[in-house]
# Entry
Amino acid sequence: MTTNADTTGTEAEKGELEGVFTGNAPANDDPWGFLKLPKPAAPAGPDPAATEPTTAAAAVESREPAEPPADAPKAERLAYFEGIVHRERELFKETVAAADRRFVERASGPLFAISRGLYRELVSDATGKPYTRFQDYLAERWGISRAHGYRILNEYPVMTALGDLAPEKLTTRQVPKLLGVLRSRGKDDPKAGAEAVRTVWRESPDKSPAALQATIDRLGWGDPEAEKLYDLSDGEKERLALVDRWAKAAKALDPAKARQLRDKDARRLLEQLKPFVEALEEVAQLPAGGKK
# Structure
């Protein structure tokens, strides 16, 4: 039996690489060497998982004034108690943000490896059969949404390549630009791809998608095919079916009839449709209003 490592230069290897471009890489495969890239250096300062609070909000606690006496003005006592609530709320938000960063840093690599097909070794509690979709594995086993998993899989290789240059978070429009460079320039050498990503980042002044694209074009490193993100769906058939259903639903939306609605009904429908429209604009890389 021939393993992936034995197929160098064969049609089998060519198919595997093409699978990466389409987001459908084969099981247990890391053709771009993302998992072999040096991991980002640990951030300076205390571990976000430490039990002792170390955030700015927590530091306020040591300077907290004494509780006003019972006969103090009500406004003073209210301000004191609300100050505690505010501090604890900020501490909660900072702790969650730190835990989320820790999760992405430490779990992205393993999830990336599992996404290459290892998840098919487990049986779904919902169906009693092996998982066929990574998004189902994420949701059922870990409670991770498809959107969050999608971001982790696509952003992780780029953040790893950027290393100490990596920002706290990349936008969904920055990721495909840099992922395309990582793939196209790292076909033969993952480290060369990582260095190319760092070069694009350093030479793009404001780091906007447009600035990144301008730098990529100037360097001659553009490759639209390599920019295709990993998809957590079952493939093109499922995507086309979904688009078809939505297209049919859109035909039923009559602007003339919409103008006959009462204002409260119009606002309710607008609130329901707004997230969907914003998501479409983001995927299509359009600014608000739908105009390029």
Remarks:
- The CA atoms of residues 174 and 210 lie 9 Å apart.
- Residues 236-283 form one domain.
